[in-house]
């Protein structure tokens, strides 16, 4: 049984990673946290585990790596983009993933690291044809709504921000689900975040709406 510890301060990513891992019969999540201090405690208190550590947690990675070595555990660092850690740190990691890795890439990395191998990614990321296709299919308004969904907003909040009715937002969401293949808000958020070009465009679209709403009247 592969024993997993998860340290990620972004709830959507934590929920998505948990969903993927818990669906596997050979993987068990022993603990998860959004706190760097608790990440250190989890590693110190659990032997022979694999820690999935999001770089955004802001933890002292050197201390965590030392704790993992002492407890016979291994560490996979999840970065926000394709930026690599500095060479000395990179050499000490057991695995490296980006937040936009697919479920298959996540599982492959976890299993390799749990088996004693190193898994440092495949180099340059392939062109995101799916993300680009979504940018062509989604309307500007749908892209704004996707941006708000990723931020965890509810339909009523989105409707108020867009000065429309909640039912209108629901209608937009049905169209977005049809185009992306997502079945609920969490799947939509995860789908978006796994396609960086789409995530960045949606965040920009939502931010533009908020900036306009916050601008003082002339």
CATH-defined superfamily of the largest domain: Response regulator
Low-confidence stretches are none
Output mean pLDDT.
Answer: 87
Describe the main β-sheet briefly. 5 strands, parallel
**Using DSSP, what is the number of strands?**
5
Strand order of the largest sheet: 2-1-3-4-5
Which structural category do the helix and sheet elements fall into? Answer: alpha/beta
Q: What is the annotated CATH architecture of the largest domain? A: 3-Layer(aba) Sandwich
Helix content: 55-70%
What's the N-to-C terminus distance?
63 Å
CATH top level label of the largest domain: Alpha Beta
Count of discrete alpha- or pi-helical segments spanning 4 or more residues: 11
Number of domains: 2
Oligomer: single chain
Strand residues, percent: 5-15%
Assign the CATH topology of the largest domain. Rossmann fold
Key structural traits:
218 residues, alpha/beta, Rossmann fold, Arc Repressor Mutant, subunit A, five-stranded parallel β-sheet, 11 helices, 5 strands, 56% helix, elongated
């Amino acid at each position: 049984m592969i024993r997993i510890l998860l340290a990620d301060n972004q709830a959507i990513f934590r929920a998505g990673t948990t969903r993927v891992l818990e669906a596997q019969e050979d993987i068990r999540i022993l603990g998860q946290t959004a706190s760097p201090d608790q990440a250190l405690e989890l590693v110190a208190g659990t032997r022979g585990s694999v820690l999935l550590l999001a770089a955004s947690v802001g933890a002292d990675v050197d201390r965590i790596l030392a704790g993992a070595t002492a407890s016979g555990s291994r560490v996979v660092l999840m970065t926000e983009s394709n930026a690599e850690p500095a060479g000395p740190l990179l050499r000490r990691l057991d695995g490296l993933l980006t937040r936009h890795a697919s479920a298959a890439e996540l599982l492959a990395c976890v299993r390799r690291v749990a088996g004693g191998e190193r898994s440092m990614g495949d180099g340059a990321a392939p062109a995101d044809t799916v993300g680009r296709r979504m940018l062509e299919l989604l309307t500007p308004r749908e892209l704004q709504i996707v941006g708000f969904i990723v931020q965890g907003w509810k339909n009523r909040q989105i409707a108020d921000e867009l000065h429309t009715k909640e039912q209108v937002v629901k209608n937009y969401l049905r169209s977005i689900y049809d185009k992306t293949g997502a079945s609920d808000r969490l799947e939509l958020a995860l789908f978006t975040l796994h396609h960086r070009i789409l995530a960045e465009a949606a965040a920009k679209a939502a931010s533009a709406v908020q900036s306009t709403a916050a601008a003082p009247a002339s």
